[in-house]
Amino acid sequence: MPRIKLISDDQIFRSICHLLIIGGDKAVSFASVARATGLAQATLAQRFGTRDGMVFAALEAEWTQLYVRVLTAGQAAPQSTKGALTFLKALDGDAPDGAILAATSRDARLREKAIVWRNAVESGLAERLGGGPKAQDAASGLFVVWQGQHVWTKAGGNRSKLKDLVKRFTD
User: Fold this and answer.
1) What whole-number distance in Å separates Cα of residue 148 and Cα of residue 170?
2) How far is the C-alpha of 19 from the C-alpha of 26, rounded, in Å?
3) N or C: which end of the chain has fewer CB within 10 A?
């Protein structure tokens, strides 16, 4: 009879992502995840096979959750310029950290999930900005600025006002 999992995969994945964010890819090992979760290294190896398999599973789950949040934000934000800002504000805490992006870049399957997420964000913005090529260009620009804010705000940079940028892109 299999043992009951006392710590869910989601809890383990959150620990792995936290370790990636605070220490980069080298900070994640069976030993460090075992310390963070209280599980035995052997248990982690049994669940995920390899260290790379464990990291892949955590990042795959992260991108899936980010994508679901985009869909949820899209259902709540109105179809308007103001709705584009509402949409981004709803996603504000959900932009992937630079360490998550760096770890993702090493695997083609994860890069594809990241691209699907980015396309969903840009499509959500373009819809709210009226659709068409001009709206798609504006959405691409807003996405880049929004993502850049997350990276540079953590590094102590000033935060541009998206509201002002939306006006510039849509005028």
Assistant:
1) 20
2) 9
3) N
